[in-house]
Specification:
The protein has about 190 residues and is α/β, with parallel strands linked by helices. About 45% of the residues lie in helices and about 20% in strands. The two termini are about 20 Å apart. About 35% of the residues are buried. Bound molecules: adenosine-5'-diphosphate and guanosine-5'-monophosphate (5GP).
Length: about 190
Amino acid sequence: MAAGKLVVLSAPSGAGKTTIAREILKRISSLRFSVSATTRAMREGEREGHDYYFMTREEFAAGVKNGLFVEWEELFGNMYGTLKSEVEKALHGGDHLLFDVDVKGALSIKRQYPEALLVFIMPPSVEKLKERLAGRKTEDSETFRIRLERVPMELEQRKAFDRVVTNNTLDSAVTEVEAIVRHHLNNKE
Ligand code: ADP
Ligand code: 5GP
């Protein structure tokens, strides 16, 4: 069986990558979502083992110690990490894997798996980004501020990505990402 391929979506918080990722997963059936581990609280509508594996800080630290992660980062006061088991399952099983990780995580995945495709989702403007993040109603004023603080660093890192897609209207962004991903997978389904 051919090895699965890796596709990484990354963007500043609120740019729309989770929304785009969900849509892409609906459209490309050979693509599976890489479920990360996190210590952040579960949001309304999220499910254990579907959106994340929700862990305590102690569980996460034990995972780091036991080498369970391909990469991990502390973001906005919480830990987030890509599990080796998710990646190995895909690489050996033949499923293609879609990652939704921060820019540092994306670059770290690329260092370890140079054949991974890195797609950066660009907000149309910082103003729109703020509007979307505020509209999502998941952040208190402090985490909203912390998420925005990282935006210049994140935008700077887009140069290291294989492709940059602006999420202006959702439909056209999804169509563009879908074409890029299908081309990478060489999958005409
Ligand atoms: P991220 O995963 O990058 O943090 P989300 O996918 O959660 O971002 O999107 C942030 C908010 O913006 C959500 O409420 C989502 O519905 C909204 N959104 C995403 N893309 C668009 C778009 N193209 N136009 C308007 N709103 C959008
Ligand atoms: P959220 O709390 O909004 O779900 O995610 C916050 C940030 O953490 C997003 O940029 C998301 O892509 C990133 N993230 C989620 N999982 C991982 C992971 O496993 N590793 C890294 N480095 N970032 C992650």
